[in-house]
Each structure stands twice: as structure tokens, then as C-alpha cells.
Amino acid sequence: MATVEESYLDKLKNAIKTNSVTARARAAGDWFRSIVNRTKGQFSSETPQSILSKQESTVTSSVLGKMYFYSYDPKWKDVLPWYDTFPLVFPIEKYTDGFLGLNFHYLAPKHRAILMDQLKAFANNKKYDETTKLKLTYNMLKGFTKIKRAKPTVHRYLTSNVRSKYVLVNADEWEVALFLPVERFKKASKKQVWAHSGGMF
Predict the structure, then answer these.
(1) 8-state DSSP, 78
(2) Nearest 5°: CA angle at 40, between 39 and 42?
(3) Other CB atoms closer than 10 Å to residue 196's CB: what's the count?
(4) ∠ CA 32-123-198 to the nearest 5 degrees?
(5) 112, 179 in Cβ contact below 8 A?
């Protein structure tokens, strides 16, 4: 079983190599199958609907530096080239009408792992439990040129266009949430979005 201190990229590589996965990740869904395109083993399938139904994890507002799933309907969807209706976001700045956040769905799984490994340096503690969050701002991100994968993940979200409660993902479940294949892009495929994002770093 991977330890908390093992990098997310190492966890991903080891899972691909050995066809192993943590008990939490196996219970959460078939993220591993989506990454390595295999069908070995029995996997239950997570969907946005099943995630939103987890009442024990839903909250009505977001906290900076925590990870959340939620349903979203962009105000300017008609002019956007594409958008994700089920973001996986770390809010990093609050505004009167919403927040700025990092949506990991805009990155392919490998790059999600690399970015998460880099962002661990901004965690407020090493417990990786319900008390853990990222202490991070947009200006801090801009100051670290090595964290280039964050660029395509930065998006502004309006509170009025959030269409569900927020599903809080505590730090001990980050590794599961990162790789769940529940991104829901409109107007483009995930591979098109990931290819465009890759061209930004």
C-alpha cells in the first residue's frame, strides 16, 4: 500500500506497473482502468451523480485550499471553446461573486499527479487528513515558474452558477479523486482539452 509520503506520480506509475491500487481507490471507482485502459479485476463505477449523492461529504460553501467536486453551468458557456460541468477544484482566491480555483480535470492523469506533487509543498501540515489544506494564492503560483502545469487549471467560478452542493474531498482521499474519470467536458473531448492544456506548459 502506498504511503502518504510517496509521490502521486510514483503511485500512478506503480499502479500501472503492478495492476495494484489502494483499497480506497479500488472502492472509489474504476480510475485505474481508465488510466491504463485495462479491464482486469472487478471495479465499481463512479459517476458525478453517485459522487453528489454522498450526503455525508456535501457542504454548502467552499473553503480556500480544500478540494471539492460540484456541478457547474458556466454563465458564458456559449462563447467558451469548452468547459467542465463537474469540476474537481482547489479554490485559491475568494471574490464577492465566486472564487478562483484549480480544476485538475484540465490535465491528463500523469500531469495531475505531477502538479499535485508540486502543490504538496503548500500544504498547511503533513497529516493528510480533514485538517489539511493548501495555503496558496494565484500570485504565489505565478512566482513559481516550475509549477507551469497549474496554468491551464486556473478558472474563475461564479457562485450563482454552481448547480449542486460541494462534495468535500479530504486530503486522505486526494489520490482517489485525482484519477477518477468523472470529468464532463462539453464542446470538446477530454483528449482535445488535455492536448491543448499540454501546449500551455
Answers:
(1) T
(2) 90
(3) 14
(4) 50
(5) yes
Q: What is the pLDDT of residue 142?
A: 86
Residue 55 pLDDT exceeds 70: yes
Tell me the per-residue pLDDT of 26-49, one tens digit each, with 9 for 90 and over. 444 444 444 333 322 222 367 888
**Exposed/middle/buried for residue 90 (C-beta within 10 Å: 0-12, 13-18, 19+):** buried
The DSSP letter of residue 126 is: S
64 contact partners, CB below 8 Å, separation of at least 6 = 91, 92, 93, 94, 99, 133
Q: Determine the residue type at 78.
A: D
Q: Look up residue 80 and give its three cell numbers.
A: 467558451
Which amino acid, residue 180?
L
Q: What whole-number distance in Å separates Cα of residue 168 and Cα of residue 66?
A: 7
Tens of pLDDT along 158-197? 999 999 999 998 998 888 788 888 899 999 999 999 999 9
175 sits in which H/E element: helix 174-179
Let me know the angle formed at the C-alpha of 114 by 113 and 120, rounded to the nearest 5 degrees: 85
